[in-house]
Amino acid sequence: MVDAAYWVEKVIFRILLKLLPVEFVNRLFWFMPGRLVIDILRWYGADIGENVKIMPPILFHNFQDKSDKPFENLHVGANSFIGRDCFLDLMGKVILEDNVTLAMGITLVTHMNVGNSSIKGQFPTYVKDIIVRNASYIGARVTVIAPVEIGSGALIGAGSLVIHDAPSHTLSAGVPAVVIRSLDEV
Q: Among residues 78, 98, 100, 170, which one has the fewest Cβ atoms lying within 10 Å of its Cβ?
């Protein structure tokens, strides 16, 4: 019975996807079941591997809403997990390799644009990617500002601000995050 209900929901949402603007669908991600979020992201061009779990609410920003594939800048590898209340800026690419865990409340920012502020000359607009390598863990309420690569098996401590690459098999934490110690490879 549950699978039949899911199939009906999936068909209804596919019809709605044809009729509704992408921004409206993005708002639905706040209360939609995680497996429907995954199906819709795939429908709209995201590359999402097998056995991925997404725990709504989740919010996406700067996806290409004028494109047939507005979420094509999102890649989530197999067996990865995205916790509740995450915010992903998709102006640049967000690449999560296999077995990555994003705890709750993560913010990933792939661009900077200060608009018409008087500091515009000091901080030019840029769009860069965020890459989180295999088997990495990002703790609760971490903010990652591109361009950043988090190495394989790295752990980022809760509440950190990541503005530089984090080497593989290290624990990094703080504001800004720095390497605290090396982790034993498993």
A: 78
- 10: containing domain: 2-182
Number of domains composing the chain: 1
Amino acid at 84: R
What are the pLDDT digits (tens) for 148-166? 999 999 999 999 999 999 9
Q: Is the pLDDT of residue 186 over 60?
A: no
**Tokens, residue 24:** 């409206």
Strand-pairing partners, residue 74, are: 94
Classify residue 74 as exposed, middle or buried by CB count within 10 Å of its CB (0-12, 13-18, 19+): buried
Residue 101 belongs to domain with CATH number: 2.160.10.10
Backbone angles phi, psi at 35, to 5 degrees: -70, -30
d(C-alpha 55, C-alpha 49), whole Å: 16
Name the band, by pLDDT with cuts 50, 70 and 90, for residue 9. Answer: low
> Do 72 and 46 meet the contact criterion of CB atoms below 8 Å apart?
yes
